[in-house]
Design a protein that fits this description.
The protein has 232 residues and is of the alpha/beta class. Helices cover 25% and strands 31% of the residues. It is built from six helices and twelve strands. The strands form two sheets. It has a seven-stranded mixed β-sheet with strand order 5-4-3-6-7-12-11, with helices on both faces. Strands 1, 2, 8, 9 and 10 form a five-stranded antiparallel β-sheet that branches. The chain starts with a helix and ends with a strand.
Length: 232
C-alpha cells in the first residue's frame, strides 16, 4: 500500500491542502472525499456518529482512527483512549493533533482489553469479506472486558441495486452484495484496490450469534445506515 490516505491527511495537517481524495467502488462512480471532512469536530459529525461517541465508556479502542477526530473528542471527555490505524500517515497526524496513545497496526494485532471498542465510518469495512466476519468478530470479542461493548456502524446498500421500478439487480451467484472493490486516488496516484464490506444488520446479528455475542441495533441513520452495540 502507498498510504495515499496518510499522505493526504498529512498534507492537510501541514497546511498543504490543494485537492481532495477521489474514491470509487465497483458499483459507483468517482466521487470527491473532502479532506476537511476527515478533520471534522463533534458538531459537524452525523447524528449517528455523535450518538456512538456519547455511548462510549471506560477504556476505549478507536479502530481505524483516521485523523483522530473520535479519539480527540473522547480524550476531552476524560476517557482513556488508544487509537489504531493501518495508515502510518494517519497515526502521525493523530500524534500531531494531540492524541495521547496512537499506534499503527491492524486490529488483529491488538492484544489489550477494553470497555468500549469503537468502529465508525462503516466499521464493518475492515472485515473486507463476508467470509472474514466471524474471524474479526471473534478477535474483537477477545478484546472485551466482561461488561464491555463494541460499537460498530454500517449500511445496508441493497438500495444501490434497485432499478427505477423497485426491482433488485443482484447476482445471486456472485459474492455478498455488500462486498465492494474500493478504489482511492490522490494527486494523480492510485492506491492498491481493497475489498470493503458493507453489512446489513441481520447478517451482522447472525454472525454475532454464531460466536456468542449479543447484537442490538441502538440507532438508525437517515439512509439505510445503523449503529449496533455488541456485547458478551
Amino acid at each position: 500500500m502507498k498510504d495515499l490516505l496518510g499522505k493526504a491527511l498529512l498534507d492537510y495537517q501541514n497546511g498543504n491542502y490543494t485537492e481532495d481524495i477521489i474514491t470509487s467502488t465497483s458499483i459507483s462512480d468517482e466521487d470527491d472525499l473532502p479532506l476537511p471532512y476527515l478533520f471534522r469536530d463533534f458538531n459537524n459529525m452525523p447524528k449517528l456518529e455523535q450518538y456512538a461517541l456519547k455511548t462510549c465508556k471506560g477504556r476505549v479502542l478507536d479502530v481505524g482512527c483516521g485523523a483522530g477526530n473520535h479519539s480527540l473528542y473522547l480524550q476531552q471527555k476524560g476517557l482513556q483512549v488508544k487509537a489504531i490505524d493501518i495508515s502510518e500517515g494517519a497515526i502521525k497526524v493523530c500524534k500531531l493533533r494531540g492524541v495521547t496513545h496512537a499506534e499503527a497496526h491492524s486490529v488483529l494485532e491488538e492484544t489489550d482489553t477494553y470497555d468500549t471498542i469503537l468502529l465508525l465510518m462503516n466499521g464493518t469495512g475492515i472485515f473486507q469479506k463476508l467470509s472474514y466476519v466471524t474471524k474479526y468478530l471473534s478477535h474483537l470479542k477477545s478484546l472485551l472486558q466482561p461488561n464491555g461493548q463494541i460499537l460498530i456502524d454500517s449500511s445496508d446498500i441493497q438500495y444501490m441495486y434497485e432499478d427505477e421500478d423497485g426491482g433488485l439487480w443482484i447476482d445471486t451467484n456472485a459474492a455478498y452484495y455488500g462486498e465492494l472493490d474500493y478504489y482511492l486516488s490522490y494527486k494523480g496516484e492510485k492506491e492498491q484496490p481493497i475489498t470493503w464490506l458493507y453489512l446489513d444488520f441481520e447478517t451482522l446479528k447472525t454472525a454475532c450469534t454464531t460466536i456468542g455475542l449479543q447484537c442490538e441495533k441502538i440507532k438508525e441513520g437517515p439512509h439505510f445506515d445503523y449503529l449496533a452495540k455488541l456485547s458478551l
